[in-house]
Amino acid sequence: MYDIMEEEVYEFQAAELSDKPCVCPQAEFNDKPDSSFFNDGVRKIDFILVYEDEDKKDFDKKQTFQRRKASLMKMGMELEATQSVIDEKLMFVKVHMPWDVLCTYAEVLHIKLPIQPNDLASRPSPWRFFSFITKYFYPNEDLIKKEAEYFTAPFEKNRLEFFHIRDRSTFFTPSMRSRMVSLAFYILSRAPYEIRGNIKKFGITKLLDSGVYKAAYPLHDCRFNAESKEEGCSNERFLLYEEWAHPKSFYKMQPLDLIRKYYGEKIGIYFAWLGFYTIMLTLAAVVGLGCFIYGYKTQETSTWSMEVCDPEIGGKIVMCPQCDRECKYWRLNSTCEASKKLCIFDNFGTLVFAVFMSVWVTLFLEFWKRYQAELEYAWDTVEFLEQEEPPRPEYEAKCIYERKNPITGVKEKVPYTGCGRCIRVSIGIGTVIFGIFLILASIVAVTVYRLAAFFAFSAKLRTQDLKELEPLKEYVTPQMATSVTASLISFVVIMILNILYERVAIWITNFELPRTKTDYENSLTLKMFLFQFVNYYSSCFYIAFFKGKAVGFPGDPVYLMGKYRNEECDPGGCLIELTTQLSIIMGGKAIWNNIQEVLLPWVKNLIFRYCTNATSQVIPRWEQDYRLQPFAKLGLFYEYLEMVIQFGFVTLFVASFPLAPILALVNNLFEIRVDAWKITTQFRRVVPEKAQDIGAWQPILQGVAILAVASNAMIIAFTSDMIPRLVYYWSFSVYPYGDHSTHTMEGYINSSLSVFNTSDFSSHSRPMGNISNITTCRYRDFRFPPGHPRQYEYNMYYWHVIAAKMAFIIVVEHIVYLTKFILSYVIPDVPYAVKEQIKREKYLTQVILHETNLKLVTKRLKPFSDDLIEHAKANMPMEEMELDF
């Protein structure tokens, strides 16, 4: 759709003289710091280009710069150059697009603009009766006015009379104008220019990287912390800061329409998704908090916890050592506190909460689709993806081969042959697989550390001569010490591997040469998510599904690599360790991200201000913005990635940590304001981009939601102690009570621990010291006791538990998946009201087009029809003329 304008650019460049300087007026600063206009105070600044003007500047860069400036002027843009007030070498080129040029680009971009006010009555909000309360949770309507709703249609320059134009200066929003300037740079970038050596380069990115331009950005409105008093200067940035980015507004809903108007649809859809996700987390957080409170209140009355802490039960049960030789026998009641903490997270409320979260995640995704459809219509992005997306300049720069387009039948340039593409993709896949194996290797290394650390902690914490540790022995167990230190090491390894793989993933994606920007982002998204999925979740999956599952029994333990004895779970299970791992990774990740997002940009801006030797003189708006940090091309990608990884923690392992939703909620309340503060105060204004939805993240969220059902069912079955308790309660604990029988959990601890004869220890694993008074010890398993014909083999209780676990997984998964399917079918993706508005808008567009075409046809045929009537009158008899006319 850019062919016509590209031909004009090529004509411009063909007529250029390489040494001819740009005829560009040198303008001085007019001492208006918040002005976003040219010096005449009439023409609005739509974009800023910054370059360094030196006498000894590289000739090639200078020549390229002059060509680009000349091309912009020949495309109809108006330029005004101003010297920096701080650094004499810096020059700021202000770019303005006149009305005719704006109309042309709006037509090229198929921008939808108002044609008629929305005449469909909106349905009243169900919360309108609580408006006296809810009004305090919305931005101040006196500051941020609610925008009128219009039906829109793709703009056409020759039909201006049909569009709702009240003021030409505000008809195109600042984000639209910036997008149009970006399109101009894109068109210029597709027209290749040459430097010495006949090397062709494309794109504004290449011009920035090569140093031709120091920066290119649209202007912020004014200062974020003060309302501008200058006439004609908008204060949208100030309003965004006051009602959105300021910490005092953390409880308020986001002004999404103003965010979209100021930053564009791509930024707007991200904050809309983040806000919707946070609101939905509120319900999950309330239920999760209730589950936690229930567990906390029942920890003292839990039968199995009481048996562990009872001196007559847990105090008399001698447990087998959990490592070879150095570890000693220990009493079960020494884990009393750990058992109580486990009851907080491992109770029947957790099962209900896990099922609830499986339904919650379905409701979240389905209601988001509906909300997204409303935004698509309100923000005029319904048919955005149907427009042809142009190829990336980096892709076109490498096009050296020819192939026939199967659709158009025309030969076109491509950067590689079919075999070349296979090689590039294969290298990318190989790199991802290598990265995953690298993570798995780190998990093995951390596992080895766990085994060695547990041996060391067991030897020290059980030693009687360490008097200083005596007060901690009741609370600090070898399992807890090993778990906390291993979790911290895992977190550090995760952060290091993230930094390493991020650079590799970007390099591989650049090497693959995706054709469009969407293809590039989707390819990078898949690589980074696969890597971070394994990186963040692998340690949790290890604890949940592998640790303590293959340990053998004291007389015949299982060894890793033939040297390290496999780590066992605490008698209460591995669930508490999984909870510890999740809390450390989630908390550490949130703290690290906030340091990166808040502290680093602020420090960089502070250093830059001091290094520029700024004086007390007045600094213009464009130079104030230049001193801010540039918004990275992949900045929004990392924001999505951070939230999707958090979404995985909230859904995949919520059965072990019901507080995960409330932690995510608190983090997101800060995240929204931190991101808002960052892009409003610390970064240059983002070049607006169009976006219809959240892109490749939508199917990733759906995949995580499906996996979460199986993951939580398996955590309850294999990591939690809930299924063995239920089997004992319903099958092995029936006692007569009068004329009836009753179920009880009494005796469960004794039934869940098998007996081992200490004389059966091997010489390698036998504990050191005098242990002649201990003839038997207990261990966590379901095996026949010594002396039985099938001693140390699995007993019937074990097979009952295995059958119950498999049945539980199958039944829960089928019920939840069926519920998810029914909810997905019942809840439509597009609300009925939105469908009506879309149909109404299409009808109005067709009516306008039909009337316009009819007028044009009538206007063209009118002279011919007049001549035909006159000729008929001249040749027709009088009586027939009287009859017909």
Automatic annotation (TrEMBL):
Membrane topology: Multi-pass membrane protein
Record-annotated membrane-spanning stretches: 270-296, 348-368, 431-459, 479-501, 524-545, 643-666, 700-720, 797-818
Residue ranges of domain Anoctamin dimerisation in the record: 37-256
UniProt domain Anoctamin transmembrane: residue ranges: 259-841
GO CC annotation: plasma membrane
Pfam annotation, one family: Anoct_dimer
Keywords assigned by UniProt, alphabetized: Cell membrane, Glycoprotein, Membrane, Transmembrane, Transmembrane helix
Family membership noted in the UniProt record: Belongs to the anoctamin family.
Protein's UniProt name: Anoctamin
Organism of provenance: Mola mola (Ocean sunfish)
